[in-house]
Structures are given as structure tokens and as C-alpha cells.
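Hey, can you fold this one?
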Amino acid sequence: RRVLFHDTDIAPHVSKAKTKGRKWHRGPGQGASECSSQFLTDPPEWLEDSEQAQGKLACSCGAKLGAFSWHGLQCSCGAWSCPAFQVVLSRVDRHVLHVG
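Sure. Predicted structure:
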């Protein structure tokens, strides 16, 4: 196991499920109160296909972690991120570092 990103690499977004207006999300995540993914602010250094318009995020070990799209992707909560480097939370382990 290795560190793929830090919390400072995560892009904040406002859940469409928690705001008024149209329901933009569709599919299995419809009505989700929590996000099933996190979006990174920049392409991770381990991304190999960054020249492509879209593709899968895969670790150097070959594990599929999510997807990327320079045109944007939609979160399970309905929010859009563009460009998008989406990491599915169920495919990564969260490790909390205690400083001090």
C-alpha cells in the first residue's frame, strides 16, 4: 500500500442533494446524502493516460480506483467537477495521520 493523495488534494464541492433546485443526479446514487467519491484538485502524479480526454484512474499496481475526464464528471450527490479526477471511496483505504 502507498499514499495516493492527501486531504489537501481533495477538491471541495457543494452537494446538489443539499441545495434547492433541479435534481441533476441520476442512477444508483440518486438521492444520496453522502458522496461515494472524492475529486482531486489536480491530476495525480501516478496518472499515466493524462493525454487522453477521459479514462480510468488506476494505481501502479493495476487496481482501478476511479475515473478521470477533462470534460468533467458528476458526483453521486449531483455536483459536477470539471476537470474531474474521481476516486471512488470504496476502492481506497483512508489512513489518518496523527501529528504531534
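Strands lie at 37-39, 54-58, 64-69, 73-74, 80-81, 84-88. Let me know if you want another pass with a different chain boundary.
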